[in-house]
Write a structure and sequence with these properties.
The chain has 273 residues and is mainly alpha-helical. The chain contains 9 helices and 7 strands; from the N terminus they run ββββααααββααβααα. The chain is globular and about 55 Å long.
C-alpha cells in the first residue's frame, strides 16, 4: 500500500498463504473469522438467557448453510440472473467455466440481502426443531450479525470489489486489481466501520437492558441500522451490474427498503413491550 498524490494505492495479494497446495484467500479467511466471532457472541447470548447447549449447537450449521446458500443465490438471481440461469451449476459450486475449462474461482458473488432471506428460512426450520420462538432466536442472532458483516466487508476490501465512486478525498483508494487508475471511495471500509459501531452499540444495549426489552427489538435494531446505512452508502458506490446504470435507486437500495421497514416495525414493537 503506497500513498501517491494523496491517494492510497491498493494492490494486495488476494491469498496470504497456501495449505497443502490449496490457496487460502483473504475473503475466505474473513468469512471464517466472521463465523467464529459470531459463534462465540451468540453462544454468550444463549448462556446469558439460560438456554442449554443442546439447543445452541445445531444453530451454527443452520446459520452457516442458510447464509451461504441465501447470499449466493441472492447474488445470482438478483444481479446476474441471465448468466446463472444459463449456468446453474455455478450458482452453488465455487467454479467457473472458462475458455480453459472448469477452474476453481471461489464464490465471487454474495449478496447480503440474499443472506438475510437464507438465514431466516434456515431459522424457521431451526425454530421448529428446538421449539424456540422464531423472533427470540432472531433477536439473539441479530446481536452478532453486524460483527459478521464487518468482516465480510473487510474481505470485499481485500478483494478490491464493491468499490465506491471516484473521489478527490485524501483517503481515496486506487484499486489496482480492479483495473482502476483513479482514487475511489473505499465503500467497503465505510460499511465495515459502520457495522462494527452498530455491533458495539447493540451488544452494550443487550448487556444492560436485555431483560427490559420486548422480543424483536434487537432484530429490528439490526435490520434498521444496517440496511439504512446500506441504503445511503449505495449513493457513493459504483454500480455492481450493467443494468443498474442510470437507475435512481440501484438493486441494493430497492432490496434494503423492505428490510428497513421491517426493522422499524420490530423496533417499535419491542420498545412498546
Amino acid at each position: 500500500m503506497n500513498l501517491i498524490h494523496s491517494a492510497i494505492v491498493w494492490n494486495p495479494s488476494i491469498s496470504p498463504f497456501s495449505i497443502f497446495g490449496f490457496e487460502v484467500r483473504y475473503y475466505s479467511l474473513c468469512w471464517v473469522i466472521a463465523l467464529l466471532a459470531s459463534y462465540y457472541i451468540v453462544r454468550y447470548t444463549y448462556r446469558k438467557s439460560g438456554v442449554g447447549e443442546d439447543k445452541f449447537e445445531p444453530l451454527f450449521m443452520y446459520c452457516f448453510f442458510g447464509i451461504l446458500i441465501g447470499a449466493r443465490l441472492g447474488h445470482c438471481l438478483f444481479y446476474e440472473p441471465e448468466y446463472y440461469l444459463s449456468n446453474p451449476i455455478e450458482m452453488l459450486l465455487p467454479i467457473r467455466n472458462t475458455a480453459n475449462g472448469w477452474v476453481f474461482r471461489g464464490y465471487e458473488g454474495l449478496a447480503s440481502h440474499g443472506g438475510v432471506i437464507g438465514v431466516i428460512t434456515a431459522l424457521i426450520l431451526y425454530a421448529r426443531k428446538t421449539k424456540l420462538t422464531m423472533v427470540w432466536t432472531l433477536d439473539h442472532i441479530a446481536i452478532a450479525a453486524p460483527l459478521f458483516s464487518t468482516f465480510v466487508r473487510l474481505g470485499n476490501f481485500m478483494n478490491s470489489e464493491i468499490i465506491g465512486n471516484v473521489t478527490d478525498a485524501p483517503w481515496g483508494v486506487i484499486f489496482v486489481q480492479a483495473g482502476e487508475t483513479l482514487p475511489r471511495h473505499p465503500a467497503q471500509l465505510y460499511e465495515s466501520i459502520a457495522y462494527l459501531v452498530i455491533f458495539l452499540v447493540g451488544l452494550l444495549l443487550y448487556r444492560k437492558y436485555n431483560n427490559r426489552m420486548g422480543k424483536g427489538l434487537f432484530l429490528g435494531y439490526c435490520l434498521f441500522t444496517i440496511f439504512t446505512f446500506r441504503f445511503f452508502v449505495e449513493f457513493i458506490k459504483e454500480e455492481q451490474v450493467a443494468f443498474e446504470e442510470g437507475m435512481t435507486l440501484v438493486m441494493g437500495q430497492w432490496l434494503s427498503i423492505p428490510l428497513i421497514i421491517a426493522g422499524a416495525y420490530f423496533m417499535i414493537k419491542g420498545i412498546k413491550k
